[in-house]
């Protein structure tokens, strides 16, 4: 407990940065849950592919520590472009291959979960076997730096050196922390406005509320679902960039635990609710860090899950309720 | 198993299906067939049938693993298939069963295996009730994530508790007491034709460390008991209450079914069977650590149930065999096992969404739906 009081701000800032990543990934779960009422189990891999895209583009552009400001901005911008493109593409592909055929056949929701689990395995394994796969097509020499040790951690050079910007209660808040937290909030606001104001956003909300009536009113359901997956993927891509800037290490199975946490965040805030995902992400990040300060960092994940169970018991629809779709008791 | 797998193809329109043909046989023949089949299953590890037998890993051990998966699938089927509760943390109960054995026979006490197994079942059942009592009130999708969290909590608690052996786990779990009644010879195929090999034998119920066949026999015995229990419960009032709850909870409640109590019962029974399989696993392995209870295992268990056809006990058995046996058989492609497994799950979901052997009810319901759809379209075109 003393530890928490002494380092309160350190835990708070760390919790907020990791919470921002949770929140962005949680949006993908929430959006898909809103329109399809299913848990997109493979969304964690969408995020993981984003982290690799961000990593590879930095390697390709020769990213290194200690470069000038202009260059760093360019690198980070390219990270966003690459990661969001990659994650968006994977998410849309996923919808095409793993979900659409099932929807056409009116499969029960449980089977969609199985299909998603299968897709998740396939995506993770392709990344884990990338050295073998490039070997078959004879590209392993050219791509050696990108594919070697494909079962191990892949690290990114720290292109933004963490520098303290200001100090809160003895903790030096770095530029990376500020960038991640502010960046995530800005992206959330853009998304919120997109769903609220744009034509496609209205379509998403309509399908979430009542798919059949929406179809009768002329909403192209398949297209809306595709856009929803794309948006979720873009968010995961952005999260991947923040994750790589803050943590800097990824792996073929890096998505799994983060995905579970992000889903927890989505449920915490009220699944199907965009602002709920933001709130849930930050609360989960904070709770996890405060909890680990009190009971020891090895219990971090336990704290997160216990919190989830408690919230569901006392407030089964999450903190903010389920607003994107209608709540189904 | 080939007799069972051919069943789904059989029920066509006019020709008598596999099931009817079996049903029409005289009772004596049926019993004889069952006995032959049971003997075949018991002798399977010793027959060493080419192609089926796994090379590189001990076939008896592989069959034991398959048998534990079958047991787990039967237990999870009660939760997922009968009561319709999505459980993603089933490995938690499996771990609790295994650790009860570990703690009471090796780590902190040296009680007899025969006494500890019932304790393991009871402990797992109680943990099922403790988890279920508060969480079964939340609705389906959330239950999935709560149980997933539970599975992780159990595993992380095991990793972090020194009392439970921490990350090193528990070793030296004693073998169950056995007796040496008679020896069963195995069959040798190395010359191309089957020859009885009197040198390689398995002693009936001697639980050693080299020969895993007796463990497989033990597991088969347990499976038959659980299966019998499953058949009795499913066809009783309880089974009907589960079915009603699964199909429409509100309607069931209105009809006077105390749905919460029956859901809790399903959860507790499922947990008990999960604990039992965990106990068997710990017995055979002799060593357990938190690594044996990864979240992935829960997902494999669920995959076994859904692949086979949730709600049909024979289906989930087939599913468990598919999920556990094929990765062992095709070990030479070890690197690509998970990839192929993932692809198989996706293909299955698309082309056989009801599972390999769906319950007869589901088949009937689907046919009724199709008829309804034809009728509705017909009306629309008039």
List the helices and strands and how they pair.
The complex is a heterodimer of chains A (about 325) and B (about 375).
Chain A: H1 2-6, H2 8-36, H3 43-60, H4 69-104, H5 109-128, H6 130-136, H7 144-147, E1 154-155, E2 164-168, E3 171-174, H8 175-197, H9 199-209, H10 211-216, H11 221-246, E4 249-250, H12 254-269, H13 274-295, H14 300-314
Antiparallel strand pairs in A: 1-4, 2-3
Helix pairs in contact in A: 2-8, 2-9, 2-11, 2-12, 2-13, 3-4, 3-5, 3-11, 3-12, 4-5, 4-11, 8-9, 8-11, 9-11, 12-13, 12-14, 13-14
Chain B: H1 2-5, H2 18-24, H3 27-47, H4 59-82, H5 91-107, H6 113-135, H7 140-160, E1 183-188, E2 195-203, H8 213-234, H9 237-247, H10 249-254, H11 259-285, H12 295-308, H13 313-329, H14 337-351, H15 360-381
Antiparallel strand pairs in B: 1-2
Quick structural gist:
Chain A has 14 helices and four strands. Chain A has 329 residues and is mainly alpha-helical. In chain A, a hairpin with a 2-residue loop joins strand 2 and strand 3 (171-174).
Protein architecture, described:
Chain A contains 14 helices and four strands. With 329 residues, chain A is mainly α. In chain A, the strands form two sheets. Chain A has a two-stranded antiparallel ribbon with strand order 1-4. In chain A, helix 2 runs parallel beside helix 8 and helix 2 crosses helix 9. Chain B is mainly alpha-helical and 382 residues long. Chain B has one domain: ABC transporter involved in vitamin B12 uptake, BtuC. In chain B, helix 4 runs parallel beside helix 8, helix 4 runs antiparallel to helix 13 and helix 12 crosses helix 13. Chain B starts with a helix and ends with a helix. The N terminus of chain B is likely disordered. Classes of the chains: A mainly alpha (329), B mainly alpha (382). At the A-B interface, helix 4, helix 5, helix 12 and helix 14 of A face helix 7, helix 12 and helix 14 of B.
